[in-house]
């Protein structure tokens, strides 16, 4: 059992015989009445998302999820190929399972995959990743760190805002939680 006070993004819980992942949560303490936790849950079987409110401190059953260390190998159409670092077995995950994390996956990257009853349910990315700039307008002499920003397309297809001095072909560090530029590598 887990308390709703201990919720964080990625926690898996069981409700009414189904397994859900917490994709967002907010602890609320109104001036009148008891505190509560507002959550956004995603059903790992169907992918359906919905909002649910729990009383603060309410106990729910936690689903036990196994985490395995893997290495991302390559994309093949709509499938993503990973290799288990312990057994060297390859796993093929579809675009639905990989979801938003595909924007941060580069070849030979090490990460973790979550499994529930031997079925992959999600990917745990590191807090930040290093990605190469595929396309952006060239930097001009005099552009500084404190200046403005410009759009840049990364090797994975993700487009984000980077400082003006960043050029095509450079490696940058990107925060996987917010999707923002951190620094040049």
How is this structure best described in words?
The chain has 3 domains: 2-62, SH3 type barrels (Roll); 66-124, OB fold (Dihydrolipoamide Acetyltransferase, E2P); 128-184, OB fold (Dihydrolipoamide Acetyltransferase, E2P) (Beta Barrel). The radius of gyration is 20 Å and the shape is flat. It contains 1 helix and 16 strands. It has one helix at 95-98; strands at 2-3, 12-15, 18-28, 36-43, 49-55, 59-62, 66-76, 79-84, 90-94, 110-116, 119-124, 128-136, 149-154, 159-163, 171-175, 181-184. The mean pLDDT is 86. It is mainly beta and 185 residues long. The chain has a 6-stranded antiparallel β-sheet with strand order 1-6-2-3-4-5, with no helix packed on it. A 5-stranded antiparallel β-sheet has the order 9-8-7-10-11. Helix content is 2%, strand content 54%.
List keywords for this structure.
OB fold (Dihydrolipoamide Acetyltransferase, E2P); five-stranded antiparallel β-sheet; 1 helix; mainly beta; SH3 type barrels; 3 domains; 185 residues; six-stranded antiparallel β-sheet
